[in-house]
């Protein structure tokens, strides 16, 4: 039913003088219908060929003779069937409208970005800011996250008595690190929430926090396994990513400005 309605929708959009792809009992089936089927075949990896054209022709004939017979049998006049068909048609029209709008928006966005180019100076400023925020050190960090400060203090007390950090990590509520010893891997201060980053920056290799560190996630016990100098990629290596980021920020600002000016009810 969906294909039938889609075919009818597309046929309405084509010109009356368009040469039909095929005619069944005097009723033309449009080239647009055929193009739809061919496009679906392309999406599935099929290439253009006489065999594909013949298959599409057979499928459209099959669909059309079934549709005509269904009409003769009065199913298009059955209220329940007609309601379902109309709902399907409206859904397809809504999808077509959304696709149309997306194409218009894409063209506008391309024009906007063309008229608002990102300069190398902007990208270099972003690069320098990223380097400054990232610091000069990478940390290999482990943590144990709990909800209660008292529990975090108990864990620290056990560590002070020689307990294994990895064993105690099983008490963590962080499901991603609970069973790997609390390992967060190599990271930088810029990727940590501030209280966590501040605590890590004061730890040397092999040290752990002697008091619980509170963040929005709960209370952490943190250990620094290792440190190494941060190897920052060159500006040229980072340039494509920075360019995409800069364009995304431009678009975000533009959209926020449009929203601020819009009347939304």
TrEMBL record:
InterPro entries: PPIase_dom_sf (IPR046357), PPIase_PpiC (IPR000297), PrsA_foldase (IPR050245), Trigger_fact/SurA_dom_sf (IPR027304). One of its GO terms (molecular function) is peptidyl-prolyl cis-trans isomerase activity. Keywords: Isomerase, Rotamase, Signal. It catalyses: [protein]-peptidylproline (omega=180) = [protein]-peptidylproline (omega=0). Its EC number is 5.2.1.8. It holds the Pfam family Rotamase_3. It comes from the Bacteria. Residues 136-226 form the PpiC domain. SUPFAM superfamilies: FKBP-like (SSF54534), Triger factor/SurA peptide-binding domain-like (SSF109998). Belongs to the PpiC/parvulin rotamase family. PANTHER family: FOLDASE PROTEIN PRSA, PEPTIDYLPROLYL ISOMERASE. This is peptidylprolyl isomerase. It comes from Paraburkholderia youngii.
């Amino acid at each position: 039913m969906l294909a039938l309605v889609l075919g009818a929708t597309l046929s309405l959009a084509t010109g009356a003088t368009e040469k039909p792809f095929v005619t069944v009992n005097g009723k033309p089936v449009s080239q647009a219908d055929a193009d739809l089927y061919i496009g679906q075949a392309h999406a599935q990896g099929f290439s253009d060929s006489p065999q594909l054209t013949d298959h599409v022709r057979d499928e459209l004939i099959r669909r059309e003779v079934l549709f005509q017979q269904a009409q003769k049998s009065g199913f298009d006049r059955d209220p329940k069937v007609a309601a379902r068909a109309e709902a399907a048609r409206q859904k397809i029209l809504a999808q077509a409208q959304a696709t149309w709008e997306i194409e218009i928006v894409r063209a506008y966005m391309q024009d906007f970005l063309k008229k608002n180019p990102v300069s190398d100076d902007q990208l270099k400023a972003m690069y320098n800011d990223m380097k400054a925020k990232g610091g000069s050190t990478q940390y290999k960090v482990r943590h144990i996250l709990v909800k209660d400060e008292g529990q975090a203090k108990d864990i620290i007390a056990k560590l002070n008595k020689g307990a294994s950090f990895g064993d105690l990590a099983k008490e963590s509520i962080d499901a991603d690190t609970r069973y790997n010893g609390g390992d967060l891997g190599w990271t930088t201060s810029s990727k940590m929430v501030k209280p966590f980053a501040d605590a890590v920056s004061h730890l040397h290799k092999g040290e752990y926090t002697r008091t619980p560190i509170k963040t929005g996630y709960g209370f952490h016990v943190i250990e620094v396994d290792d440190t190494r100098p941060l190897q920052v990629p060159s500006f040229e290596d980072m340039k494509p990513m920075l360019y995409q980021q800069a364009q995304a920020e431009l678009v975000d600002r533009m959209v926020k400005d449009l929203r601020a000016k819009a009347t939304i009810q």
